[in-house]
Each structure stands twice: as structure tokens, then as C-alpha cells.
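Bumping with the actual sequence this time:
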Amino acid sequence: MNKRVTYFNNEKNISGRLIQDLRKKFNLSVEDLAIKLQLEGIDISSQVIRNIENNKRTVTDFELLIIARVLNISIIINAEEIKYIDSEIVL
């Protein structure tokens, strides 16, 4: 039987740092982001966002989709990384 994978490269998610970097780039506090997500119907607190950013909680695909929507960004996801697209340049 295969072992369930809960970490990748010793991380619970590959998006936490990107979420934090983008949140800061757009001058949003954790609380601001939580409010924006709650207005989109995602029941998420500022503490949960901190846990995602600090690699203590996984982020679900639908949460990631809504995060991208509230930040008004496009993302590319592959098996090992998530990239944010800015002005048609992949970072």
C-alpha cells in the first residue's frame, strides 16, 4: 500500500510563501486578505492564512483559486511549484 503524501520537499504546501509575498506586494494585511476571502464565501480566518503562509496548514485548490481571484492575479500550477504571472512575464 502506498504511503499518503502530506509533505512535498518537507513543506505542507508549495503556495504559502507565494501567497505571503503577493499579499505583501499588494499591501494587504493578513486580516485584509481574510476579509476579502470571507466576502467571496471562503470561511477562513487571519490565523488560518498565517498558518498557510508559515507552512503549518495545507491550502486547498478552491482556496488557492479564490486567493488568486481576490488578488486579481493569474497563476500557473505544476507538480513542484506555483508561478504568478505579472504583465505576461512568468516569475
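The C-alpha cells above came from a reply further down the thread. Residues 16-84 form a domain with the 434 Repressor (Amino-terminal Domain) fold (CATH 1.10.260.40).
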